[in-house]
Amino acid sequence: MRPSRALLLILPLSAVALAGGWWLSRGESGDVASAPHWVDENQCRQCHAPQFRDWQNSHHHLAMRLPTGDTVRGDFNDVTFRSDRETTRFFRDGNRFLVHTPNADGQPETFPVAYTFGWAPLQQYLLALDDGRLQALGVAWDTAQQRWFHLYDGEGVDAHHPLHWQQPAQNANTQCIECHTTDFRTGFDETTQRFDSQWHSLGVGCQGCHGPAADHLRWANALNETPDTTAGKGFARQLDRAPQQLDTCGTCHSRRTPLGTPTHSATLQDDYLLSQLTADLYEVDGKIQGEVFEYGSFLQSRMHQAGVVCADCHNPHSGQLRAPDNAVCTQCHNPAATPVRAAIRGTHLAAKDYDSPAHHHHAPGSPGAACKACHMPGKTYMGNDLRHDHSFSSPDPEQALALGHSDACLGCHENSDTDTLLTHFRQWYPAHQPRDGGYARALFKARHGDAGAAEALLTQLARGDLPGLRRAALIAELPAYPSRAAQQAVSAALTHADPSVRRAAIEALPPGMQSELPGLLNDPVRAVRLGAAEQWLSLADQQGMSLPADALSEYEQVQRQLPANAEAHTNLANLYRLTGRDEQVAPALHAALQRNPRFVPAIVLLAQWQAAQGDGDSGRRQLSQALRDQPDNAVLHHAYGLASIRAGQLQEGVRALEKAHALAPDNDTYAFVLAVAWHDTGQRPRALQLLREQLARHPASRSLRLALYQYLPRGPEQDALLQTLTQQNPQDPLLHAHH
Fold it and tell me: Which residues form the Doubled CXXCH motif domain (predicted)?
């Protein structure tokens, strides 16, 4: 499970840590009168028999089941599996499936399997704990190779590791079960610290996508009695409409964070915070890198822009492709250039036989002749789960070599001579041009501080055909390249139709525009409103401001709706601190640590709060104790270093800052703070050298460049820094200040 970039972002959905809570199923009576919203889905088969039959064999239906001889796919015939740190035994006792494995204290203990989790290519098992949690075992069953394997083998996962199966990261009450059941409710009680989670049904059922069906049944009954009845079909989600269908699928098939209790709005970002195209999650050309699922890449595709939806390629009930192999693509990409649906815009379709060696230049039927091999290269997650990229890119080996991103040709022919491969590619596709219109090269320039970076960003942002997520990724780079034109681009992005673009603009607001934040709290989309609230809190923290609590009521409400999350309690503590509710700060932080004793942001904030209240010694002791438990945590070392310096323990503080930099050498903040500490303790040459090295590693960092410039004496090295800045961004205000 990867931590979120900002505290608001609670925990991103990730199947790396598939975990669960102890779910108590609510009644599934078919009586519509007693269940005004949700109904027994067996009633659906009366009118929708083919769809129901497809669904019964789908991964959606089998996403989470009670353990039986039919649903458990792993070998429980007294089998022992050994990872790099732990030993786990699988066996049966009658109808019970049992796991003997180390518990949270590292002591072997036997647990019954409460539920199966997933179907293929791997199946995990959820083990119940006494406080209502279901936790996902890290040892999973490979359904293809028929073997046990550990999701994190080789990573030293034991009882003290954050990815151990009993740690909070593996708790599905706050993680993945939402997407494996229908109408899931967390049901966490803060008083008892227990879960009483509920669902309507195991697996993703009809209503999981279409919404509660009671009104639909009423409509159907009325239609039977009065055939002329045409007023609506009684479903909250009209999945025949492209935006709603995409957002419904994206609810689970995306990297996103829940924003409190779901409203089941028609807009995904009213209920979830969609991850942006950050460098750790996506490659520079937009292909998947981290575990981001399909939605984010698909939104970047030409397919999406043309009006293609998930159901054009996938049977939404079985989950299978609409047609076998390349035939699913040739529904549209055919010699007649005829889309499979009239609503799909065929403007860019070329009349061509794409399933021909004349196009793909591989032997018919070979792996290289498959459309997905070239246009949907995949990555393996969770040990054996190959997932195909849905941005539908085209191979571009020359650009891939220049920018360092993956490429279908280079990936399949990794042992071939590169020059020969490029020669063949140019011969086969002499008219090839990058399909993204220069987006990847512009983003690469910006992230690497290349000459012309600012101009490349602004040129791309002037395009009218840029997908929203890509526009947001470019907006996110603008703070490193300030200018009047950049400010205008951010201002325009604040009113863009895509909420992801507006969110990026909020985070990129220059100092002169941050007064607009309060007005953005009224944006029509919740994710944007909460992003504005978070930025306003951050600004208040930087400037020592106090904010009116009522202006941030929605932000506070969202955090309160997530009481099982340590992150939410930490967010509340920060909110209380900045809105003058001092008496509530420490209790909120203690609540966060009760949920997750190793949650570093809460540990650090509590230490800082204690210091602000005049008890810096307690804060330092807390940080020191946390470091004994997490000795390789750079955040804790950095916080301890700063706390020690404030307490007058300069040498001890500098040593801690050095350790933080050593553990996280790519963190510019740690390098900068260490350089300041060295400089102020008489180690000026070391400080200058550190800044030089860090800037060489991250030449796009304007803050590092300015810090080094200010520390250097007037001379050629200062001039060189300004010259590079001129090449990157000739409109940088700093340059005008030096003319």
Answer: 310-337
Alpha helix ranges (H) inside 630-715:
634-646, 650-663, 668-680, 684-697, 702-711
Residue 236 has pLDDT above 70, yes or no: no
Phi/psi at 152 (nearest 5 deg)?
-125, 35
Confidence class for position 223, pLDDT limits 50, 70, 90: confident
Q: HEC string of 58-71? A: CCCCCCEECCCCCC
In this model, does residue 11 exceed pLDDT 80? no
The alpha carbons of the chain give a radius of gyration, in whole angstroms, of 28
Q: Which two tokens stand for residue 602?
A: 């809460």
Paired tokens of 167: 């740690």
Determine the Cα–Cα distance for residues 714 and 640; give it in Å rounded to an integer. Answer: 35
Count, residues in the chain = 739
Residue 226: C-alpha distances to residues 37, 216, 229, 232 (Å): 23, 15, 6, 14
Residue 592's contacts (CB-CB under 8 Å, 6 or more residues apart) are: 566, 567, 568, 569, 570, 573, 599, 602
Q: Where are the domains of the chain?
A: 7-217, 242-394
For residues 437 and 361, give the distance between their C-alpha atoms in angstroms, rounded to a whole number: 25
Angle ∠(687,690,694) on CA atoms, nearest 5: 140
Crossing angle between the packed helical segments 585-595 and 600-612, to the nearest 10 degrees: 160
Q: How far apart are CA 663 and CA 511, in angstroms?
A: 32
